[in-house]
Write a structure and sequence with these properties.
homodimer; 445 residues; 5-stranded mixed barrel; 30 strands; globular
Chain lengths: 445, 445
């Protein structure tokens, strides 16, 4: 069995912690068994590795998430880059082509597609063994995990199971997508399950479907012609058109943590960050800013603050957040995790942007130029190796470095390195960057 | 008649907008008749000037508020600097000595002491004419304005009026300080009034009381011996010991805007700043940060954000804010208005502080040195004249200036000038400053 994980998401439902780049799966709002902060991606990855220590994992994602995937899942996962966002069928198909053509995986091998952001217990991943068995023995073309519903919600898709095909699996009679709550209730009474977003099949099954859509020669050919694939979900394109679908029920903790309310249920502490509360009831606070939050006499509230903004929402109403965030003016992300560390935008004006950069020891930013901006760097703490147009020099706390537009530059952190960067120019965008072959070499982390 | 205004206040009850330096009277949360933002100090000053165009005004305050007083009230008011904070009797006494010894005001002239932060209508200041008449004609030694109470609160002091001494004035029978609400209610039924914090008397009246406490030769002598004056309020020291007190009732808008709830009542708009609301009820938002606030489904709430912090409070409970703010770790102010402009702290670490400075055209910061920090300035926009150890040079957008510890420096804004300042050092305090005679001359504003 091979695992494909899908990592996407626009992240507006957990604004302001999540944004287009920092999707909810990378927010360190959970804790691991030792009490350390943990993201959903780290949790899921750890759970899979524990259940299947030798398994190969391939993550389908876009370029903006690569640094985060590496930082949360390490170097052992394969990453398949979607050339653009086109929904789940193209992403899964591309990943299958990668396994078939680049990794020479046997066409009869079982592939399990998992979301990267399910909050579940270990038992959930154990179910994959049953699904693998169903697929290996050709009892079905497609096998799913069905979650025993804990409430009649219209948020999820429902699976109606039919007759048993083994001790713990049934055939699927029908799918009902996001029914009204009263219909959901009657479906649950008939034994319906939530669709957990897990798809298990033989590699050749999806490759065959893909070939019928598009004649392609190999992985690179498919990737180059990615925009010829319809924007369609795997559910619509494959699952709902398949006659031979099996479902294995799972009863236990499961949440897609898609709203602040569901996240609040799983938060290890009611408040985190620099926060004071007084006479608060059922109030959840996540403060990622350096300044304090005081909550006084509040009730049934979520308060979240990040460099992107501040949310104050009734817990139940928080499920309505996405359209409100959609209405915000388009803004650049104010915080990003990168392969080399992280940055926060601390101020911006019409013609300037001030960032605080933290480079981890041994890491370096790529050798690069900008066309539209000058940069002034002040080394706030640490030691580094700075390159400007091919000249290397050691830099330390208190040094000021000036990089004019067009000048090639890079810096490597000898120790953890904190830099205040002032950008000056009329166009200040992360896209204004040209990268060159590395001039200095990173140390292995 | 002469006016003395008292401008003090620690500003914790309207945190995070107010702080030790930026007291509530300087917050621009009201609007003037043209819809422009207006502070309480600006409003009161404007109301007095309208009622008494030729009147002399003296403001008693401390050094940290001088820049704000000048910025909100202009150059025409006298400023009496309290050498330290010692309560209202010393502050009023010092101001009276200033008028008597420095301004040679006649000992028989009427002095009206007013708070700088009363939110009232014009009729309130018209009442001063009645009080002036009572004092001039020696009908009382002390005259007060009594506010007709709008509710039985324990927040204020109450004045119990006795027999009439003129058409609109009565003698004062008794004072009751902050009674329980049920007692307040029965007092109001007997005709009690709130003490509006206005004291009117003849100059010699207070000078005589002061002389009995301390033998002093002139204003400078008194100022040098200010710490010999007891920390005592004018109410306890003077008002409650005086037999011949008159009170003139005032019926109309009056608030000391001492809590977020009372402020909310007077806010011209429910929300200000970069804010989106959805399904909110009775929710007041003031956002001074650059990042958005989203409020979703909230009710009876005040949300306020400034560089000092974020408050989310139930409206009624907001009166309990001060002790919660007292519990915050001691922090430096993150925003200050200065004579020359304003600054915001945008980031800080153990050994660094990043500020955004805005100097108004024509203004200059004083010629100064720091012992414990280096500063790196990046001119983000505008033109200026920079002095470093006596050398003057023109600077413009994009220039980087380095000021090592011990180096004398100043800068004058030729146009409005925006500077990003990175401070590096282990002690980073506003107190680490030595000032020298100005090297460059400001232009008149």
């Amino acid at each position: 069995m091979q695992i494909i994980m899908l990592s996407g998401g626009s992240g507006k439902r957990l604004w302001p912690l999540s944004n287009d780049i920092r999707s909810k799966q990378f927010l360190k709002i959970l804790v691991d068994e030792y009490g350390n902060p943990q993201s959903m991606a780290q949790r899921v990855y750890g759970q899979i590795c524990e259940a299947y220590p030798q398994i190969n994992i391939t993550v389908a994602t876009n370029i903006s998430q690569v640094d985060s995937i590496r930082s949360h899942m390490g170097e052992n996962v394969n990453i398949v880059l979607e050339p653009e966002r086109r929904d789940t069928f193209p992403a899964i198909a591309l990943s299958c082509a990668f396994l078939a053509y680049e990794k020479n995986v046997d066409y009869n091998e079982t592939i399990a597609v998992l979301p990267v952001d399910s909050y579940t217990e270990h038992g959930f991943f154990d179910k994959l063994k049953s699904l693998d068995k169903i697929i290996s023995s050709d009892d079905a073309n497609l096998a799913l995990i069905g979650i025993k519903p804990s409430l009649a919600t219209s948020k999820y898709g429902y699976i109606i199971p039919g007759k048993k095909i083994s001790k713990d699996a049934s055939e699927v009679l029908q799918f009902v997508e996001k029914p009204e709550e009263d219909i959901a209730l009657s479906l649950i009474e008939q034994g319906a399950l939530w669709n957990g977003g897990v798809f298990v099949f033989k590699l050749k099954y999806v490759i065959d479907i893909l070939r019928r859509k598009l004649a392609f020669s190999d992985f690179n050919d498919l990737r180059n012609r990615y925009n010829e694939l319809d924007r369609i979900s795997f559910d619509y394109m494959v699952v709902e058109r398949e006659q031979r679908v099996a479902v294995v029920p799972y009863q236990g903790t499961w949440s897609d943590i898609g709203t602040w309310r569901t996240l609040a249920d799983e938060m290890p502490y009611n408040v985190s960050g620099y926060t004071k509360t007084e006479k608060t009831v059922n109030t959840y606070i996540v403060n990622e800013l350096e300044i304090p939050i005081i909550a006084l006499g509040t009730k049934d509230l979520v308060i979240a603050a990040s460099p992107d903004g501040i949310l104050v929402s009734d817990l139940v109403e928080s499920s309505q957040l996405k359209p409100v965030v959609d209405n915000l003016e388009d803004t650049r992300p104010m915080f990003e995790e990168r392969r080399w560390g992280e940055y926060t935008v601390i101020a911006k004006t019409n013609n300037s942007l001030v960032k605080q950069l933290l480079l981890y020891k041994g890491k370096a930013i790529s050798y690069q130029t900008h066309i539209h901006r000058d940069e002034i760097w002040v080394i706030v703490s640490g030691y580094g190796e700075f390159v400007l147009d091919g000249e290397v020099k050691r830099v330390k706390e208190g040094d000021t470095l000036r990089i004019n537009r067009g000048q090639k530059h890079s810096i490597k952190a000898i120790s953890d390195l904190l830099i205040t960067e002032v950008q000056i120019g009329t166009i200040l965008s992360e896209d204004d960057i040209e990268r060159y072959p590395d001039f200095i070499t990173e140390e292995a982390s």
